[in-house]
């Protein structure tokens, strides 16, 4: 199997740990010396950079939360003179103040190196013509993947997101063989390509998807509709953007770029580190970032690390698909529900389409959850008995998976909202949260 950087990707676990320790000592000292927030946190906890003598010693440094980072808006996390910064990105800030990400020239090189590894791992090569359908903007997705594909030598179509019919025409005319998008936009694009009757004129071979949670069922749906191999990648603005981890063609978890990111899993309640293999919240320390280092950043993303070797030959540890964000988890009548569990039930289910919406409301202390899903066949709307049957089937499947009763609303095909970037499928209208 092809690798971009076999020396790093197949380095033994011991050698990698030694490399990580050296880089961790550098990164912690760099943050301590140059970023007041990290220095103050460490001083309060009585930890000095010299105290990091083993990788486990990182746990003596306090965690940094999203709120901690927000308070440093816009540039108080920058660890070098501003003249050395050559790029500024920012997270969307839909749930509050945005968080900025600042890069030096070396950081951009490191970033594209990380993505080149993931592009090759996901089946990309210099032969590809790749359509990048993430928005080119403050969002890190497009520029991040662009850097990786360019390094690998592919021909890039920097089309950005939106104007979906044009996307399909360009994909056909330019002979795109690879697609980069969010899974939800890729699904919408597939619907449009089918509607335009163009699917069999397209040459797409692989899809590299990321930036939002999606289930195995959604992957299967994307692979089936496009006729591609779909892999997934992960990252976040706070630690640089995409490029933290990505899947190889075995699709069994995302290989972490461990020489640049040190990943821990902690108990989301107590913040205490958990042993490898247990599910919890991902915490990331950057090991190479110069412009804006991140030390023990709490991502809120729930996952698990996988240490078993992968058939592809890469020795880098993997992270499992993100189950959801700890702040997306819905507590409905005391039961924890991740939207991804609902997606797993709906996508691929006979009679309904893969688009859905979740609405949560309350009457007093009682919570109610409504799941809206599209019918595949509008003619069913005229056949009440069959419609009711299908509704009961969906409701029963959800009850079995979630252990709570959901109201199921079947709506006409193509009536739910479609997304060009990250999907927003949950509306929580509760007044008792
Ligand atoms: O979404 C970076 C990215 C772009 C990753 C393109 C992959 C591909 P942010 O906008 O800062 O950065 O959002 C980061 O998105 O904390 C996760 O909650 C979520 N996320 C990113 N990738 C995945 C994924 C980019 N593969 C936040 N699965 C993260 C689930 C993901 N969630």
Walk me through what this model shows.
This protein has 433 residues and is α/β, with parallel strands linked by helices. The chain has helices spanning 6-9, 13-34, 36-45, 66-70, 105-121, 140-152, 164-174, 183-195, 216-226, 339-346, 384-402; strands at 85-90, 100-104, 129-132, 155-157, 178-181, 206-210, 229-236, 241-247, 254-256, 261-266, 280-286, 297-303, 305-306, 318-319, 324-325, 330-332, 335-337, 352-363, 366-375, 407-411, 426-428. The radius of gyration is 22 Å and the shape is globular. 5'-O-[hydroxy(phenylacetyl)phosphoryl]adenosine binds at residues 91-92, 139-141, 210-213, 232-237, 241-242, 299, 301, 322, 325.
Key traits:
single chain; 433 residues; alpha/beta; nine-stranded mixed β-sheet; 11 helices; 21 strands; 31% helix; globular; binds 5'-O-[hydroxy(phenylacetyl)phosphoryl]adenosine
- The helix content is 25-40%
Arithmetic mean of pLDDT:
96
Structural class: alpha/beta
The ligands found in this model are: 5'-O-[hydroxy(phenylacetyl)phosphoryl]adenosine
Largest beta-sheet details: 9 strands, mixed
| SS strand fraction | 15-25%
Condensed summary:
By secondary structure, the protein is an alpha/beta fold. It is built from eleven helices and 21 strands. It is globular and about 70 Å long.
What is the secondary structure topology, with strand pairs?
Blueprint: H1 6-9, H2 13-34, H3 36-45, H4 66-70, E1 85-90, E2 100-104, H5 105-121, E3 129-132, H6 140-152, E4 155-157, H7 164-174, E5 178-181, H8 183-195, E6 206-210, H9 216-226, E7 229-236, E8 241-247, E9 254-256, E10 261-266, E11 280-286, E12 297-303, E13 305-306, E14 318-319, E15 324-325, E16 330-332, E17 335-337, H10 339-346, E18 352-363, E19 366-375, H11 384-402, E20 407-411, E21 426-428
Bound molecules: 5'-O-[hydroxy(phenylacetyl)phosphoryl]adenosine.
């Amino acid at each position: 199997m092809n690798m971009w950087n076999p020396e790093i990707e197949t380095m033994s676990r011991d050698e990698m740990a030694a490399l990580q320790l050296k880089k961790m000592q550098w990164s912690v000292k760099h943050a301590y010396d140059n970023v007041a927030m990290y220095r103050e946190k460490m001083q309060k906890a009585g930890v000095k950079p010299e105290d990091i003598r083993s990788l486990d010693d990182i746990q003596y440094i306090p965690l940094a939360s999203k709120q901690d980072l927000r308070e440093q808006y816009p540039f108080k996390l920058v660890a070098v003179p501003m003249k050395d910064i050559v790029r500024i990105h920012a997270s969307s800030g839909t749930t509050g103040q945005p968080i900025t990400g600042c890069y030096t020239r070396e950081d951009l090189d490191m970033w594209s190196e990380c993505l080149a590894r993931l592009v090759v791992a996901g089946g990309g090569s210099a032969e590809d013509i790749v359509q990048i359908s993430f928005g080119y903007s403050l969002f890190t997705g497009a520029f991040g993947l662009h850097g990786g594909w360019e390094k690998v030598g592919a021909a890039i179509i920097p089309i950005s997101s939106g104007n979906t019919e044009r996307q399909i025409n360009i994909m056909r005319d330019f002979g795109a063989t690879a697609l980069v998008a969010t899974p939800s936009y890729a699904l919408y694009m597939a619907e449009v390509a089918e509607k335009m009757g163009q699917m069999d004129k397209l040459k797409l071979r692989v899809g590299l998807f990321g930036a939002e949670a999606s289930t195995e069922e959604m992957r299967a749906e994307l692979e089936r509709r496009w006729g591609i191999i779909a892999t997934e990648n992960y990252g976040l603005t706070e630690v640089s953007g995409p490029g933290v981890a990505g899947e190889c063609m075995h699709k069994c978890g995302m290989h972490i770029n461990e020489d640049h990111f040190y990943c821990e899993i902690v108990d989301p309640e107590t913040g205490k580190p958990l042993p490898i293999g247990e599910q919890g919240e991902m915490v990331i320390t950057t090991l190479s970032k110069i412009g804006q280092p991140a030390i023990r950043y709490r991502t809120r993303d729930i996952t698990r690390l996988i240490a078993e070797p992968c058939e592809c030959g890469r020795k880098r540890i993997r992270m499992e698909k993100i189950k959801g964000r700890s702040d997306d988890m819905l507590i409905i009548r005391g039961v924890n529900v991740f939207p991804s569990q609902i997606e797993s039930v709906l996508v691929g289910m006979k009679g309904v389409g893969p688009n859905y919406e979740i609405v949560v409301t309350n009457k007093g202390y009682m919570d109610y959850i409504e799941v809206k899903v599209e019918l595949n066949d509008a003619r069913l709307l005229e056949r009440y008995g069959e419609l009711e049957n299908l509704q009961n089937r969906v409701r029963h499947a959800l009850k079995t998976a979630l252990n709570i009763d959901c109201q199921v609303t079947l709506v006409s095909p193509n009536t739910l909202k479609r997304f060009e970037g990250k999907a927003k499928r949950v509306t929580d209208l509760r007044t008792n949260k």
